Amino acid sequence: MSGVLQRLKQFANSPQGRRTIEQVRRTASDPRRRAQAQRLFGKLRARRSGSGM
């Protein structure tokens, strides 16, 4: 598992990783996108709790 974390750290420190992180931050700060994500997570929670797990 530490190999996966090491790869994530390397990606986050790369130029492509920095661009991706900045794009995710901009998207997460958009109220419309945030509401869209909350609806999606709500559906996933409802589906998970309805299955009896």
UniProtKB/TrEMBL annotation:
Residues 42-53 have a biased composition (Basic residues). Residues 1-53 are annotated as: Disordered. Residues 19-33 have a biased composition (Basic and acidic residues). This is Uncharacterized protein. It comes from Streptomyces olivaceoviridis. The lineage of its organism: Bacteria, Bacillati, Actinomycetota, Actinomycetes, Kitasatosporales.
